[in-house]
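Task: complex structure prediction.
Instruction: return structure tokens for all chains below.
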Amino acid sequence: MTSPAVRMSGSRRAHGRGSEAKRYGSHLFAHIVLVLGGFAMALPFLWQIIMSLSSNAEVTSVPPTFFPRELRFDNYLAVFDVMPFFSQLGVSIWITVIRVVVQIILCTFAGYAFARMRFRGRGLMLALVLAILMVPSQVYLLSQYQIVQNLGLLDTVAGIVAPGLFSAFGTFLMRQFFLGLPVELEEAARLDGANPFQIFWKIMLPLTGPAVSALAILVVLFSWNELLWPLVVSTRSDAAPLSVGLAALAGVPTVNYPVLMAASVLTMAPILILFIILQRRVIEGLAFTGIK
Amino acid sequence: MMNRISPHARLRRRGWLTGIAALGLAGLLAGCAGGGSPAEPSGDGYTPPAKDFAAEITYGVWDQTQVDAINANIEGFNKEYPNIKVNVNVTPWGDYWTKLQTQGSSSTLPDIFWMNGPNFQLYASNGMFEPITSIVDGGYIKPADYPKALIDLYTLDGVSYGVPKDFDTIAVWYNKALFAKAGVEVPKAGWTWDDIQTKAKAISTALSGDGIYGIAAATDGQSGYYDTILQAGGDVISADGKKTGYGTPEAAAGIQFWTDLITSGASPNIQQLSDTPALTWFTSGKAAMFQGGSWQRNAMVQSDIKDDVQVVELPKGERQATVIHGVANVVSAKSANKQAAQALQVYLASKAAQEQQGEMGAVIPAFNGTQQAFVDSIPQYDLQVFLDAIAYSFPYPVSKNTSAWAGLEAEILLPAFNGDVSVDKANAELATKVQAALDAE
Amino acid sequence: MTLSLRTVRTPVVSTPDRRRSAGPARTDGWWPWAFVAPLFLGVCVFYLWPILQTVYFSFTKFGVFGGQTWIGAANWARLVQDPDFYRAILNTLIYSAIVLLGIPVAVFLASLINRPGLRFASLYRVLFFLPYIAMPVAISLVWRMMFNGDFGIINYALSLVGIDGPHWLSTPGLALISVSLVGFWGSFGLAILILGAGLKNIPVELYEAAELDGATPWRRFRSVTVPLLSPSVFFVTIITIIGSFQLFDALYAMLGPNNPVMPATQSLVFYFYENGFIRNDKGFAAAIALAILVIIGIVTVIQFRLQKRWVNYD
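Output:
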């Protein structure tokens, strides 16, 4: 089995260009389908932006107003009055960065141990870790809340990130990755008298790029978008991340739609921009997760 | 804005936030206080602390927009008691009750905090509040200075626990421009149920081409069926909280009021109101009337139709009636600084503090005679109607465990409003189920 | 919190066991413990202990201001007799089924996007991936506007072809379909990427051989693509089902808890939320949570059993 890293590099893309047209016929049909489908994918985002620049009357007009009479950018300014946007943005960024860094460290170490080290109870521990993947996150909420409260971490960034630092999924991902690496590398080092930590640090860690970037991307998406848990542990609105801020705003009956739409654009914008900048890496990284 | 409680429409809607957190909360705490018998009026009566009394207390509130007014109040308080430090702790509405329940479970309630009607009896019957009996006996607060309905709202088994801070009542907001466009005369004080039905129907008919309705029906209790049931001469829950008024012909009439508006086409139906809230129908110029509360004045004045809006008292049924609700300041029975907290409770209830609240605008202060500032806050609207409504107001209906039956109302009534279920059937079903919930308290 | 299950994956499939080849018995001493301990302790505290506690909660009744009373199996007895529970299971299955319909579509789209030499392929990938990165709460609010019965653009589009659109989100039956359509819409991004990676791993020689044998494009798709892609399809199916069983955010944000159709539309997780948070019956909610766990477990086991019939790992 080749390593995922090697596979990803697309070494199989051996299709001869010459026979393409013959083998696949015209690409016209593919383009038509994909353009229509892509438009359907993008439509809600476009409509969201249009609504965010409309007046309340235009949002509820019949027929719909596709081109607002004037573009109301002040809807975006109004967002800053109705939610503590910047402090929530800060919280979102903080929790995301902390989770990415800590998860990568913990999951890489544990994943490596589960894949390549021998110790009593390994099977049992791995089974326990994997079992929690199956459990809906709601199951944990009551107890996790109590734990975080007992630790005195309510309303703190530490409280929001705590459970999310320990990821069964990330551990599993890294374990699968290490399983795919050839053993010969380690054996040579072991013969040279390296201890397990040195082997891990010097030989294996430098190879983890694709897996680590896939993990990082997933953690970023998960952390930014997560709602339920931060909602539970942050009782002060300026100590909550953006997802909670937006949900709270949506629950205010008097907030007008364009402002709500503007808030939802602003809330998603950082992650969308990051995605557009890093799209190639993101897509390759995520495709990696699908390879066993 | 969100300071007002309570249509449970709103209760439930924001319940997402609230509820979610509620999760973790209550009950989890080890030890768990609470669950006890109602507070014994504590032996030691209230006496004002010495001027140099030193303490630090926490004041729990939920409305960020009122913090300026609260701080102004505290400044005044600190002129009297310079060494009592007050920390204002703002928890957004969505999480306030969840957090409070947790704190109640762990005996860590704020020393003094805001309370609303639907939650009051639950906390009071679990001994969470310090009664105001000795404060009243000492003459530091006179209940007669506040609307009686509000004093009653915060009284359980003859013992009062809360001092009213502010209040709100219900009226009908209307859009002058749409009335003119439909050629219908705008409503005037003294109008009746027949008038509102006729006008709403006439506007819907005249403007149906534009997708405009005469009224966007209120589908919640506080600004909807509670008022009309009272207007029909009925009640929702008896004053002692033991018996439901559902099942009576008066309740049927109060429900029928909304069913008529919807089935005649005067109002959007339940599906439409569920897709687009009534307030939005009104503020986007798609409905000519909206029965709502004093707390909605900011939404009105910030809307695109602000210059067309006016407000008029509720139409009269068998009698004139509105629900009144207000927030109260309560002191925790377990407060370590009870004397200081009570001193603040007394100060916040004073005429000076209440006037200041009114001038700073966010609320209608509860102290009789301090409300002029509210009326003047948006001179183009006839906000006086909300004050005049006190004269015919009834307390917000509550019982020991309000949420146990309040959730049933929407579930059973909405199909009846839509005409999918007969009003009599819904009324009978509510009578049985609400009574069962009350009996279980 | 685990990663949201839409990203969760897989089956430990056919991974060759390399440990055996690691030479004669060697010991790593205490190193493995040092590597695993930080993670495992966290997992114990934040995940394993809560599961045990939830089991205990499911046999208790919570007091308003704290305290639990042991009530034996009463919550469980109530659960199995509650018609809402079965309704919620059915709704969840309907939702899952509709979202699963996206998988064949994703296979089709992935095969189009991965045609060699197709221009703008990466643009298409980005477009189809957009829904995956969108914040569920935010995008559900947009869909709610689009589905609005009076002002929404969906009904406007229908009106152009002479159809008087319904009130999607407040009509029983249609509400669930609407939410499912949004789930369907959001299901392509990751699936296309994973399937695309699977497609790239199919040796081109197989296609060439099939072509030499005179196989039609459809025949090549059936005989080469489908079997060789089956492990990826299986993986996508598993994550889709587990994700579907967690349906909550979209339902909440699109319909709102106060929607009259909610009782007829609620998913299992919403049913859990309704009882635990709105009705504040946390002991009963704990029983529901465990029931969800058991149901997901059963469905996953069934899938692993069935995979032998159609998934090809060679």
